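Why do we care about 3D structure at all? Because function follows from shape, and shape follows, mostly, from sequence. That is the central idea of this module. The next example makes it concrete: a single protein chain, its amino acid sequence, and then its structure expressed as tokens.
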Amino acid sequence: MTMHGSSLFAPWRIDYIRSLHKEPTECFLCAAARAVDAEQRRAALVLWQSDHSIVLINRYPYANGHLLVAPRAHQAELSELDSAQLADLQIQTAAATTLLKRAVSAQGFNIGINLGRCAGAGVPGHLHQHVVPRWAGDTNFMAVVGEVHVVPEAIGRLYDELSRVRGELSPQA
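And the structure:
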């Protein structure tokens, strides 16, 4: 993304806009959960997986460091998850906040799940929790006036930094 005069360029955003008009051929969360090697995990932006959940960087973020925490199972409703899956979703969400506090100095978080398309779910068939880091003063005119979110760091660089800090927090991962 670059600024030029009074124009804001976010060329990655066109991929998201075009994807809204296409029926996905495959659930990107299920595909990410099947990533087995480091190259596949990086391409899918997968930071880590547990027995029941997957944690990845949102490719179309609301803010720098926006993560998704999803069950590995393709389920649309919280009531479809068993107690171990529900607990693990929250455990991994807590781990994601710890990582973001350390890696991007997050001072707060918006955490939530959109269930159903009318509630804003972009992938209504596979529930996922958004973990959006926040900082004092990070809301500015861009989001209020232009409905634009400024993401100040490239996703590849963010992936490298979060992976590095995750390794420091849990060397066995």
